[in-house]
Backbone:
């Protein structure tokens, strides 16, 4: 085909195109050689061909055909109108006479097509059509840029990155993160994925675990009339991050302990109460490596950096074993448990642990954290019982307070044990007021802070006693009365005979020291 040159061929056509499509040529997709942009450029080229052809048929002629030649590397293109060679021209916009063509090329004949151009789009299309072409390509560019960023973020799911605080909202914190290809991405940390002690205002840079990526959703109506939400292929994305996920702790260990990354040490299980306590079971694949020692590091240096990142979260690292009795006894540390007192049933995944009275409090842990973590770590449902050495000294009608776990919850059981009320009759003997005091715990001084810094040790500033409001007092008194009533219902009048008359018959119970 012969191409007829337009009259103003001396004009720099690339400059004309650049003026109309300048933003397209300046797109990162065209200019950034670090990306795998060949396929991206072809997508834009195909779109450009389709949209120009469509607008030509709308503004110029409904039956017009065109050839569009695009140079993706330079970001420019040329458009040629195809005109059919006829003897006599009926439709000038899509036909050309044989006589006119023969002046240019005598090899063409009737029925062939002649390419006229390259044309100046401004002469063939309206301003609105030019704008539509421009906006369509720009949208495609933005969609493809988002796709590149999305695919890059998708590779980061399950990894830990360092983000900087950008915006703090009531229910979430927005972080910014620069990818390896220097794309700026916003990371969303919901309030539910934050640890209680996290303070983005004081720690503007945090490590974050990329949990998932959510795409923009649209409602779609199905053939049966039901409406479902589906992800929009070219929609925006939201990168959700977490600091409470168990895999976040796993990745921190993997980063700090090279042996885990190399496969010489295997983390068998993790259980966390974020910001409070965590238990990690490790196993070595090499007889020459101590898994606990290597994980903790020399003088605890390896684990200290993890603890610092997690706002002083207590982390127990224990040896993993296939023996459930030994594994459960290790998992319930810091309670001192003889594995022989653990009775585990692998079929029902239930275990009974006989403990000395002074170890029950440590086995349960504050807020019930210790026993809950042990259950999660081992996969066993653990029941704790008091093992009394001298049964002749025990009241046969008395009941261990640990048996009220389901009614009161582990937190309250821990508080009662901490107050020395380890049996039901001791609870009744103590009375409602003593139960209330045990639930409230010992009165601890409230540390004075100035601009967020603890000032309790500064001379001249005395620590304030923690104040309990009247509403709190009424609440805990009601709880104490309920505990007293529930416990008392387990006894007959004969069982309680003499309990409140003779204080000398009651065992004096010393409160167990606070958990270290």
Residues:
């Amino acid at each position: 085909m012969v191409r007829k040159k337009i009259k103003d061929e001396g004009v720099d056509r690339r400059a004309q195109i650049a003026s109309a499509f300048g933003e397209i040529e300046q797109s990162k997709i065209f200019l950034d050689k670090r990306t795998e942009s060949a396929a991206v450029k072809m997508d834009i080229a195909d779109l450009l061909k389709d949209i120009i052809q469509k607008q030509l048929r709308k503004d110029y002629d409904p039956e017009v055909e065109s050839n569009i030649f695009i140079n993706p590397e330079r970001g420019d293109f040329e458009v040629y109108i195809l005109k059919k060679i006829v003897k006599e021209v009926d439709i000038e916009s899509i036909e050309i006479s044989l006589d006119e063509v023969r002046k240019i090329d005598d090899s063409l004949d009737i029925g062939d097509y002649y390419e006229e151009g390259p044309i100046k789009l401004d002469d063939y299309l309206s301003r609105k059509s030019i704008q539509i072409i421009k906006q369509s390509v720009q949208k495609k560019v933005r969609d493809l840029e988002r796709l590149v960023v999305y695919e890059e973020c998708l590779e980061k799911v399950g990894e830990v990155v360092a983000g900087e605080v950008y915006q703090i909202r009531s229910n979430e914190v927005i972080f910014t993160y620069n990818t390896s290809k220097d794309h700026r991405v916003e990371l969303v940390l919901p309030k539910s994925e934050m640890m209680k002690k996290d303070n983005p205002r004081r720690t503007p840079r945090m490590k974050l675990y990329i949990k998932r990526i959510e795409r923009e959703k649209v409602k779609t109506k199905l053939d049966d009339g039901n409406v479902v939400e589906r992800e929009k292929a070219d929609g925006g994305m939201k990168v959700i991050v977490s600091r409470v996920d168990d895999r976040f702790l796993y990745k921190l260990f993997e980063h700090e302990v090279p042996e885990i990354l190399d496969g010489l040490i295997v983390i068998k299980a993790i259980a966390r109460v974020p910001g409070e306590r965590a238990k990690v079971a490790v196993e070595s694949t090499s007889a020459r490596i101590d898994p606990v020692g290597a994980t903790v590091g020399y003088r605890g240096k390896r684990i200290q950096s993890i603890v610092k990142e997690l706002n002083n979260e207590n982390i127990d690292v224990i040896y993993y074993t296939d023996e459930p009795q030994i594994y459960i006894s290790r998992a319930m540390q810091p309670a001192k448990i003889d594995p022989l007192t653990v009775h585990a049933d692998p079929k029902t995944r239930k275990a009974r642990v006989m403990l000395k009275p002074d170890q029950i409090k440590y086995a349960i842990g504050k807020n019930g954290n210790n026993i809950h973590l042990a259950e999660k770590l081992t996969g066993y449902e653990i029941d704790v019982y008091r093992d009394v050495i001298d049964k002749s000294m025990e009241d046969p009608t008395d009941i261990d307070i640990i048996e009220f776990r389901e009614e009161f919850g582990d937190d309250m059981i821990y508080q009662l044990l901490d107050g020395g009320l380890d049996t039901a009759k001791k609870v009744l003997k103590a009375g409602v007021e003593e139960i209330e005091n045990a639930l409230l715990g010992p009165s601890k001084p409230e540390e004075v802070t100035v601009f967020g810094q603890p000032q309790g040790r500064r001379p001249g500033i005395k620590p304030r006693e923690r104040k309990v409001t009247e509403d709190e007092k009424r609440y805990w008194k009601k709880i104490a009365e309920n505990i007293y009533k529930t416990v008392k219902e387990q006894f007959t009048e004969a069982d309680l005979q003499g309990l409140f008359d003779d204080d000398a018959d009651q065992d004096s119970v010393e409160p167990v020291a606070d958990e270290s």
